[in-house]
């Protein structure tokens, strides 16, 4: 399925990552932080020789830096060889960082721009059990518009956001996210059976976007695209409005704007961390 996918950048050596304007003390701090990043990139403790190879730093410099980081409990020294791994203080920093991330706040600026440029309500939703939950909503301000609220929920099988989120699942996972057949029909266009929905999702995966064509409410259309991170659909982004304003030409324009917005969101490390943490928290719930 064509989609906007987030990727993680590759790091160079510590010397390459060092700020060009760094003075002596800032340089030492940059090197220490880069060492923590090197340790975070592996599941095994790293020896002094390995760290030297990875960072380009002499062992004498590494010993001084690791001594300070070990004393402050950001690094733990293991006696054999010796080798080093991250300490518990790093987890405290990570938790503090995550506590201060808000998906709605991080997405709001891009979502407002999307609502202004399309003239329709912009929605960001995530999968939560058998429903989609709206985590950010920005309305266009027009008198005639689709209205929703942050925290509201809707069905998966008859909404643009919901069908995009379902399309990120394997076919065998679908029954666990859907009501018993026949699904409740909200309009005469609502899909009410698993077989028809599965076929619709396969078409969605091929074209790369989802559409609700008067399926949830008469007179309303919605166009939605997936946000994919490391091969997993973590969220869906949509615009919703009067059906008459979703001509074929308009849909092409909306699709381009949705893709561009999704790409910018996934280029933000803070947004990626926040949406990943949110979806992981939902997945861990019983």
TrEMBL record:
<dbReference type="GO" id="GO:0003700">
    <property type="term" value="F:DNA-binding transcription factor activity"/>
</dbReference>
<keyword id="KW-0238">DNA-binding</keyword>
<feature type="region of interest" description="Disordered">
    <location>
        <begin position="1"/>
        <end position="22"/>
    </location>
</feature>
<dbReference type="Pfam" id="PF01614">
    <property type="entry name" value="IclR_C"/>
</dbReference>
<dbReference type="InterPro" id="IPR029016">
    <property type="entry name" value="GAF-like_dom_sf"/>
</dbReference>
<feature type="domain" description="HTH iclR-type">
    <location>
        <begin position="26"/>
        <end position="88"/>
    </location>
</feature>
<feature type="domain" description="IclR-ED">
    <location>
        <begin position="89"/>
        <end position="271"/>
    </location>
</feature>
<dbReference type="GO" id="GO:0003677">
    <property type="term" value="F:DNA binding"/>
</dbReference>
<dbReference type="InterPro" id="IPR036388">
    <property type="entry name" value="WH-like_DNA-bd_sf"/>
</dbReference>
<keyword id="KW-0805">Transcription regulation</keyword>
<dbReference type="InterPro" id="IPR005471">
    <property type="entry name" value="Tscrpt_reg_IclR_N"/>
</dbReference>
<feature type="compositionally biased region" description="Polar residues">
    <location>
        <begin position="1"/>
        <end position="13"/>
    </location>
</feature>
<dbReference type="Pfam" id="PF09339">
    <property type="entry name" value="HTH_IclR"/>
</dbReference>
<keyword id="KW-0804">Transcription</keyword>
<dbReference type="GO" id="GO:0045892">
    <property type="term" value="P:negative regulation of DNA-templated transcription"/>
</dbReference>
<dbReference type="InterPro" id="IPR014757">
    <property type="entry name" value="Tscrpt_reg_IclR_C"/>
</dbReference>
<dbReference type="InterPro" id="IPR050707">
    <property type="entry name" value="HTH_MetabolicPath_Reg"/>
</dbReference>
<protein>
    <submittedName>
        <fullName>Transcriptional regulator, IclR family</fullName>
    </submittedName>
</protein>
<dbReference type="InterPro" id="IPR036390">
    <property type="entry name" value="WH_DNA-bd_sf"/>
</dbReference>
């Amino acid at each position: 399925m064509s989609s906007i996918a987030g990727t993680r950048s590759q790091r160079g050596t510590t010397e390459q990552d060092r700020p060009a304007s760094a003075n002596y003390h800032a340089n030492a701090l940059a090197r220490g932080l880069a060492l923590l990043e090197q340790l975070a990139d592996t599941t095994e403790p790293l020896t002094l020789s390995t760290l030297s190879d990875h960072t380009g730093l002499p062992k004498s410099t590494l010993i001084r830096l690791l001594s300070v980081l070990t004393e402050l409990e950001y690094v733990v020294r293991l006696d054999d060889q010796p080798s080093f791994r991250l300490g518990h203080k790093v987890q405290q920093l990570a938790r503090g960082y995550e506590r201060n991330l808000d998906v709605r706040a991080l997405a709001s600026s891009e979502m407002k721009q999307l609502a202004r440029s399309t003239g329709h309500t912009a929605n960001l939703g995530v999968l939560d059990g058998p429903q989609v939950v709206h985590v950010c909503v920005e309305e266009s301000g027009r008198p005639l518009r689709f209205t929703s609220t942050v925290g509201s929920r809707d069905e998966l099988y008859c909404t643009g956001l919901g069908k995009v989120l379902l399309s990120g699942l394997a076919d065998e996972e679908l029954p666990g996210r859907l009501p018993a057949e026949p699904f409740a029909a909200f309009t005469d266009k609502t899909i009410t059976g698993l077989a028809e929905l599965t076929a619709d999702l396969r078409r969605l995966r091929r074209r790369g976007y989802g559409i609700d064509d008067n399926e949830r409410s008469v007179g309303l259309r919605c166009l939605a695209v997936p946000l994919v991170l490391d091969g997993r659909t973590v969220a869906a982004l949509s615009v919703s409005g009067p059906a008459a304003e979703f001509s074929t030409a308009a849909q092409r324009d909306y699709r381009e704007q949705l893709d561009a917005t999704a790409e910018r969101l996934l280029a933000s490390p803070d947004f990626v961390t926040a949406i990943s943490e949110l979806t992981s928290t939902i997945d861990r719930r019983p």
